[in-house]
Write a structure and sequence with these properties.
The structure holds two protein chains of two kinds. Chain A has helices at residues 108-113, 116-125, 138-141, 164-171, 173-187, 201-213, 240-248, 268-280, 310-316, 357-360, 373-377, 384-393, 396-401, 412-416, 423-436; strands spanning 17-18, 24-28, 39-40, 47-48, 53-56, 65-66, 71-80, 86-94, 150-155, 191-197, 227-231, 263-267, 286-292, 300-305, 326-329, 336-338, 351-355. Chain A is α/β, with parallel strands linked by helices. Chain A is globular, with a radius of gyration of 22 Å. The chains are: A alpha/beta, B mainly alpha. At the A-B interface, strand 15, strand 16, helix 11, helix 14 and helix 15 of A face helix 1 of B.
Amino acid sequence: MVKLAEHKSRTEHNAIETARLPDKAYIPLNQHIGKICNKVEVNPGDTVLRGQRLAGSDGNVFAPVHASISGKVAGIQNWFHPLMGKSRAIVIENDGNDTPVPMSLRPQAEINALTPDQIRAIIFEAGIVGMGGASFPTHIKLNPPKPVDTLIINGCECEPYLTGDYRLMVERTKEIILGMKLVAKCLGVKNIYIAVEDNKPEAIKAFEILSGAVPADKQSGADTQYSVRTLKSLYPQGGEKQLIKNVLGKEIPRGRLPFDTGVVVQNVATFFAVYEAVYKMKPLYERVVTVTGSCLSNPQNLLVRIGTPIKQLVEFCGPLKNPPAKIIFGGPMMGIAKSSDLVPVIKSTTGIVLFTKEETGIKEEEFCIRCGACVKECPAGLMPCLINTASEKGFWAHAKANGCLDCIECGICSYVCPANRRIVQSIRRAKMEAMKL
Amino acid sequence: MDKFIVTSSPHLHKKESVRRIMWTVNMSLLPAAVAGVFIFGAGAAWIMALCILSAIISEAVLQKLTHRKISVLDGSAFLTGLLLAFNLPARVPFWIPIAGSFFAIAIGKQVFGGLGQNIFNPALAGRAFLTASWPKYVTTFTAPFSCDATTCATPLTLLKEGPGLDHLSYMDLFLGKKGGCIGEVCILALLIGAAYLFYKKYITWHIPLSYIAATALVIWIFGGKPLFSGDWFFHILSGGLILGAFFMATDYVTSPLTGKGQIIFGAGCGLLTAVLRIWGGSAEGVSYAILMMNAATPVIDRFTANRVYGS
């Protein structure tokens, strides 16, 4: 684990603002891990309302997608996707009215009476996925094949530049706790931890104040308690495996998933989405996105409608001080650089980071001098430089023996490498090949 | 449309480079170089300049001939030349540094593919070559602070060939008032350089500490007439142990990757150094000890791999 320059000061004190609605929203049909939403329920020319379900799937693992603005369906076409090159997307032309489908506050008595199955059904219908970046459908994660006893709320946000989760924790603390109680009810867990890095003292304070109030809060009905765990600000503290180790002191065995050790980890933004779905009957059609970079004169944490092309967000945070040379979806350590600014925000977009040409700093690759920096820092306990050389020679079995499949792709090895070697990139390649062996 | 740069993550990079590491290590050898010139006179400076220059020229020529990128300014050839000079007496014929540097760069480094690919520490390979080929020149040492090129045996040779160490105090050994190679005599200067490398976090305690401790332990047990009476402190301050432990054995390329492996590596170096010094044919053992452990590095790496998360 390493200490990174955080660059969070640009936006960490900016309250969440609502972004201007897009003129056209591009809603990709796959914003989750699982089957693409192949059953489109609208036709070109149809008028849709904000929050209206647009597409589902005949598969088991998926989350439906919803309209994020009201307007006319302009078409269904291939369009830029943050994680893939292009993918099918529903295009909605904004009619300027932002008319919602009927949404109302769910009565408290009804919420208290919800069974775990009913909560999961609401979460599924709202199209909620893991919002820290992994985008696994939440209703499935909350229905683990074996009983679990521990829930960890991931409020680490260890990626540099990003502050959306932090603002959410500070401004929507109570809502996150209410969402947490619903999730805890779903899972039937006893132990709940909120894990926050020590560079977010305000969030820690907010949770601690509320934690004292929880037992007295009879409104929600659920009698759950949680404890706040302050973790060091080190990257990748928010990685699922590292988080479990540092909060609970235990490791997930190789090749297993957290629920095998009785743990479920969810990102704070997901809890907020669960709260909105259950309490406000609101599907997941908007999320908080940090739009930042030194070239923006007005970087912000924005509440953004899904499908908004980032070009519009950049304009909203402008004017530009310098021309951006690189656009990163997500944080700078694990995020994906895109060639176009027409790519839309999706459910798992945590932030948009813009780099100038100087900040891009692409350096020439040199020979490995075996300095061991990557070996020392690898949070997965691998020897990245050895996998790197094996991968470059095409020795896939050797790469596998060196544990390439255990790599979490956090990027530390490439970050610390004095020879500028593209270590993660070559390990990704090795992973693909090793899986075929 | 494609107007933005696309690269694989991560998009940040620590401000660190091979070049910076190499030049920092060169910088850390400066106190010992100055001490060498101070103790042995301008001849030492000439030897260092010759070694460095011929190392750089050899590297440039070989890279040109093999159609590779010429990277002589990355500081690594400079370092090889400087370390080789540190391992030579102050007065040797001019062609000795040239031959040594060429061997170090050509056979020690470039035949394996250049920086990062070599098995043996290039400077030590060069020294071993010179010792094997022209032993007379490289084991005739200049006396300290003598303007007339008086020769003088090293403390370790004196010890090996019989008693006669009464004129040397520990302080003399520590400050460098003794016969020996250019860069190895002034322990104080070497420790100043080593402290700088620790401060910059370019070396860790694993190799130097285990190396020196293992040498001292074996010397203490077997180095004296009755067991457990060896003068381990004398051995630490004599010969190339401090230079070897902090600057040669810690060479990234030829030492193990993990802390665990580095401790084994250092302990092995220490054991071999003591064995060679006590029972070996020559008085000194540091270079061959490190070279032998260099050969063992891949095996050590294999058996001291990190524990993978969740295993």
